Amino acid sequence: MVNIHLTGLKPEQISQIQAMIEQFKTQNLADNSQLSLSDKTPDIIDILTDNPILVDSFLSREEIYDRSH
Prior knowledge:
Low-confidence stretches: none
Order of helices and strands: HHH
Structural class: mainly alpha
Strand content: under 5%
Number of helices: 3
Radius of gyration: 23 Å
């Protein structure tokens, strides 16, 4: 939480700051809803975390993705 000191500001300036804060809150909610885990396409780290493997040589990106399906 951030405290904003509004001492000495005009009512119009305070209203503008409040409007900006509301816009940021709305944008943050929209960003968070877009990042739901069910909609996220898994990347290599997700795949290896969910299904780790022991390797003794180099694996290509395709080999990692192909083994996850």
